TrEMBL record:
GO terms for biological process: transcription by RNA polymerase I; transcription by RNA polymerase II; tRNA transcription by RNA polymerase III. It comes from Fervidicoccus fontis. One of its GO terms (cellular component) is DNA-directed RNA polymerase complex. The gene is rpo6. One of its GO terms (molecular function) is DNA-directed RNA polymerase activity. DNA-dependent RNA polymerase (RNAP) catalyzes the transcription of DNA into RNA using the four ribonucleoside triphosphates as substrates. Keywords: Cytoplasm, DNA-directed RNA polymerase, Nucleotidyltransferase, Transcription, Transferase. Pfam families: RNA_pol_Rpb6 (PF01192). Its EC number is 2.7.7.6. This is DNA-directed RNA polymerase subunit Rpo6.
Amino acid sequence: MSFIVPKSIDEIIPPKRLTRFERARIISARALQLSLGAPPFIDLTGITRDPIEIAEKELEEGLLPITVARWLRGGVKQLIPVKWLIEEERRGKTR
């Protein structure tokens, strides 16, 4: 099994945004970490202490150091930083 790490957002496997499944997996994994005592990456003033809401906010702000793996034909996977996908979503909304 081999993997590819793209050098820019232009080299990633489409879609150039998080899918609903990737988003759900990332939020649930981070919410679990928070519920087990992991420190949040954001300031919690004005936000409820709900781990899911905190995880959603961290994801929206692009603060999570997580990589998404997308599979290509032939068993090759591409590792994409979540931050790139979030930035691309923001650009798409402002167009």
